[in-house]
């Protein structure tokens, strides 16, 4: 799965002032990412506000994105949830045309045991029509996938090719990176620790910030993956203030504010999320101006 080495971007879903999907903005965003040199795109993950889209809206966004991308870069679709049977049904109905992998978030809300998480992913891997990337984000799911469970899945499930890790736990990162199979990808789920994780053997990033700065971020990631950390480090550090400001209030409110400043799409969100404050929006604009 070397097509997923480097920078992937968890794309936002643009909305208009009436709350409808802004397909013109989505098309602009897609082309901005590809022109910026990212390696792949993730459609309808957390940053895409997937939780607020209906099934028919999700199908339309997946189809539209595949048509606009037209196989110029690989695509990954976010399909996950806390009801295993419902996830399996979603995978069964998913139109794979143009897509290369599934990103599936760990079950949230019902707080399963490690055995429950393992069995959830095991049956998903067995029935998914595409290779599966685990997504561990305990800050949102209230449930961590332990290093032991990740490694168990990596060794037992041939259709699981890697993990997107957003636990922030470097002790956990160390164990996974040390003991994982060589071809199992370890992808950062946190922009701010991308380069350190690459130095430890990570495979890249699925980024939020990349929506706004695809070229700047993907250039840094490629430098890191090539081993040129002397050149990559100062470029990466220049981006870190922008990273932190994006998440001061909510995601994707921060990154949608940045995209509005760039003229790519507006900053409308669906409730219960609201646009970031005017003060934070101005701070994001100032940090973005230092980079672009």
From TrEMBL:
Q: What Pfam families does the database record attribute to this sequence?
A: DHDPS
* Tagged with keyword Cytoplasm: yes
Q: What molecular function does GO assign, one term? A: 4-hydroxy-tetrahydrodipicolinate synthase activity
Residue positions of the active site: 135 (proton donor/acceptor), 164 (schiff-base intermediate with substrate)
Keyword Ribosomal protein appears in the UniProt entry: no
Q: Which SUPFAM superfamilies match?
A: Aldolase (SSF51569)
Ligand binding (pyruvate): 47, 206
This chain's function reads: Catalyzes the condensation of (S)-aspartate-beta-semialdehyde [(S)-ASA] and pyruvate to 4-hydroxy-tetrahydrodipicolinate (HTPA).
Q: What is this protein called?
A: 4-hydroxy-tetrahydrodipicolinate synthase
Q: Which organism is it from?
A: Arcticibacter pallidicorallinus
């Amino acid at each position: 799965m070397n097509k997923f080495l480097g920078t992937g971007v968890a794309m936002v879903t643009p909305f208009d002032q009436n709350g409808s999907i802004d397909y013109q903005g989505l098309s602009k965003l897609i082309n901005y990412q590809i022109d910026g040199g990212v390696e792949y795109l993730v459609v309808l993950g957390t940053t895409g506000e997937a939780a607020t889209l209906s099934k028919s809206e999700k199908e339309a966004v997946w189809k539209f994105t595949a048509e606009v991308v037209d196989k110029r870069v690989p695509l990954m679709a976010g399909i996950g949830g806390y009801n295993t049977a419902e996830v399996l049904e979603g995978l069964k109905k998913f139109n794979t045309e143009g897509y290369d992998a599934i990103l599936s978030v760990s079950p949230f809300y019902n707080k399963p045991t490690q055995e429950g998480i393992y069995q959830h992913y095991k049956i998903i891997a067995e029935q998914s029509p595409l290779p599966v990337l685990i997504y561990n984000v305990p800050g949102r799911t209230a449930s961590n996938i332990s290093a032991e469970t990740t490694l168990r899945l990596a060794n037992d499930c041939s259709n699981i090719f890697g993990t997107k890790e957003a636990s922030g736990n470097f002790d956990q990162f160390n164990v996974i990176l040390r003991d994982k199979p060589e071809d199992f990808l370890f992808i950062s789920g946190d922009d701010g620790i991308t380069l350190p994780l690459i130095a430890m053997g990570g495979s890249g990033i699925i980024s939020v910030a990349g929506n706004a700065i695809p070229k700047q971020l993907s250039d840094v990631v490629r430098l890191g993956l090539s081993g040129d950390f002397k050149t990559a480090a100062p470029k990466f550090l220049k981006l870190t203030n922008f990273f932190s400001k994006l998440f001061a209030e909510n995601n994707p409110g921060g990154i949608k504010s940045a995209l509005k400043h760039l003229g790519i799409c507006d900053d409308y969100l669906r409730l219960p999320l609201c646009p970031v404050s005017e003060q934070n929006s101005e701070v994001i604009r100032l940090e973005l101006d230092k980079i672009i």
